[in-house]
Amino acid sequence: MRLRVAALADQRAPLWVRRRLRAWLDELGWPEDDRDDLVLATSEAVSNVVDHAYPPGHTGTAHVEARHIDGPRRTRRVIIRVRDNGRWRDPPDESENRRRGLPLMRALTAAMRLDTTSAGTCVELISAAVPRSEAR
Amino acid sequence: LPLVPLSVHLEIGRGNARVGEYRQRMSSHNGQHSEADEPLTVRTWRADNTVVVVAVGELDILTAPQLRRAVSECLRELFVPTVVLDLTGLTFAGSHGLALLMEMTSESKRINTAFRVVVGEQSGILRVLEVVGLDKELPLYPNVEKALAPE
């Protein structure tokens, strides 16, 4: 079961993605604290798309894809990709936000990868391992 | 300490609200907060020498400007010695919220106003602040009473 969301990369995109991802993780029976960490990390990645990917006046898309995989010793993880078709650029206003978004994403996940090419930026977030649900 | 609502859209009558009533109203407000509502509700209360700004909902890239406006208006225009920001009603806070807290803290130092942030004892916002190590840099309090009368 995968989650795919394509959100218009405006200020409401992170809110919309958070709601979809939270519901998807709840359906999987993900533990609450881990769910909240993942939702926050993903929200930061989508916020980065809104802040950095597209020039002012041009609204692009933020693509979010989430899947879960089984790991060793009855564990599982979620892998989330947040992708855009823009070019990384600094936001117009000098905020302190830039210094906190990436550290947050890094701190809240087991692994994080940031790929920037001329075609766009892709952030991959790998969650901490959680136990598989009893039902399976 | 009597707390009087500052903003005109507040439904409470003028004059007699106290901390207890304020807390009760905010908690019933929290209970009613749903996804259909605005993502963030900001209300401002005033006592003699203190302004309490209460934010309920989600603090992110969309809503941070709204809270920034409310807090910086209080800091710049009301000339009170103390501004308290109550964030215990937040259900989400991301890096745009953290940036706002850093900005408002430096702004308050510049204009010599006490700025105190209420984050509860094990809230999501406190966890986020701890994750990035900001919990040591910001003036955090567990509840509004302690923020109004520290020590």
Task: Explain this structure.
The complex is a heterodimer of chains A (136) and B (151). Chain A is α+β, with helices and mostly antiparallel strands and 136 residues long. Helix content of chain A is 35%, strand content 31%. In chain A, strands 1, 2, 3, 4, 5 and 6 form a six-stranded antiparallel β-sheet that branches. The longest helix of chain A has 22 residues. Chain A starts with a strand and ends in a 5-residue tail after the last strand. The relative contact order of chain A is 0.21. The mean pLDDT of chain A is 89. With 151 residues, chain B is α/β, with parallel strands linked by helices. Chain B contains five helices and six strands; from the N terminus they run E-H-E-E-H-E-H-E-H-E-H. The longest helix of chain B is centred in the last third of the chain and has 16 residues. Chain B is globular. About 16% of the residues of chain B have low confidence. The chains are: A alpha+beta (136), B alpha/beta (151). At the A-B interface, helix 1, helix 2 and helix 3 of A face helix 3 and helix 4 of B.
Question: Helix and strand layout, with pairings?
Answer:
The complex is a heterodimer of chains A (136) and B (151).
Chain A: E1 3-8, H1 13-27, H2 32-53, E2 61-71, E3 75-83, H3 98-107, E4 111-117, E5 120-126, E6 130-131
Antiparallel strand pairs in A: 1-2, 2-3, 3-5, 3-6, 4-5
Helix pairs in contact in A: 1-2, 2-3
Chain B: E1 4-5, H1 19-32, E2 40-46, E3 50-59, H2 64-77, E4 82-93, H3 95-110, E5 114-118, H4 124-131, E6 140-141, H5 144-148
Helix pairs in contact in B: 2-3
What key attributes describe this structure?
heterodimer, A: 136 residues, alpha+beta, six-stranded antiparallel beta sheet, 3 helices, 6 strands, 31% strand, B: 151 residues, alpha/beta, six-stranded mixed beta sheet, 38% helix, globular
